[in-house]
Amino acid sequence: MKRGLLIGLLAALLLCCVPARTENAFEASIVLSSYAGEAETVAIPEEIQGLPAVAIGDGCFAKSNVRDVTLPETVEFIGEHTVW
After folding, report:
1. How far is residue 76's CA from residue 71's CA, in Å, rounded to a whole number?
2. Does the CA dihedral 67-79-48-35 come out positive or negative?
3. How many other C-beta atoms are found inside a 10 Å radius of the C-beta of residue 16?
4. 10 in helix, strand or coil?
5. What is the pTM of this model?
6. pLDDT mean over 35-58
């Protein structure tokens, strides 16, 4: 059950993330822009599709049921109104 939920969560996150450029133009990373899942608890992985998750965009979880988010150490920026 937990594995299925984790796979569903990762699938929802993968649908809503965009590659970002960092200070080094050759170093790609991920910015989560929105969440399409229905879980109340979310754990962001350190990497998505082999790229580090470095930021949570403005309003990423604003229109969701999310109440608890666990962030990896790779996240360096959290946008405004991320959880509303």
Report:
1. 10
2. positive
3. 14
4. helix
5. 0.66
6. 92
